[in-house]
Predict the structure of DedA family protein.
Amino acid sequence: MHLTLSAAAHPLSAASEPQGGIAGWAASLVETFGGPGAGAAVALENVFPPLPSEVILPLTGFAASQGVLSIASALFWTTLGSVVGAVVLYGVGAVFGRERMHAWWAKLPLVKASDLVRTEAWFARHGTKAVLLGRMVPVFRSLISVPAGVERMPLPVFVALTAAGSLVWNTVLVMAGYLLGDQWDVVGSYVGVVSKVVLALAVVALAGYVTLRVRSRRRGKS
C-alpha cells in the first residue's frame, strides 16, 4: 500500500512512500481513515507489541506534514488508541487475577512465592510511577498494563496515567516524523536501538536472577 494524498495535497516522493509491510499497512489505514486509522494502528500496536510504534507514529507525523491529517488529530487519535490498547491488556490482567497469578507462579521453576509478594508490594508503592513512566519505555510500554490489571489499579487512575504517558511518547515520535519529512523512517532506527538495549538489559537481569536462584538451591542441598 502507498500513502497517497488527495488531489489538493502534495504527493509524496517515491522514495518516501512505504512499500508494503507494517509501514504500508499503517499508511493504508491513515490514508483511508485519517486520524481514526492511526488510532486503530496504535491500539493494535499496544495489544501486539511486535507491531512497532516507532514506525506507526513517525509515519503518522509524516502524513500530517503532507496534509493527510492535522497534528492535533494525529495526537488525539494515537493517544486514544494507546489508551484503548492499554485498557484491553489491563482487562486481561484483571480477568487473570491475583489468585491465578499466584497459582501459575507456584508452578514455575526457580521462583518463590515471596518473590511475587515482594513484586506486588513494590507495585502497590510505585505502581502509578511505573504505569506513567513505563508508557515511555520501549517494550514495557505495553506490558506494564497487565500487572496494573492484576493488581486492580483503579481504572480511572490507570486511564489517566496511561493517557499522560502515552501523550508524551506519541508527541515525541509524531513530531519527529512531522519535522523529518521524507526522513521519517530514521526515527525507527534510533528507537529500535533503544528497544534492543532495553531487551538486552532485561535478558541480563533475568539471567542474573536465574543464576542466583540456582546457586541458592545448590547451597540449600549441600
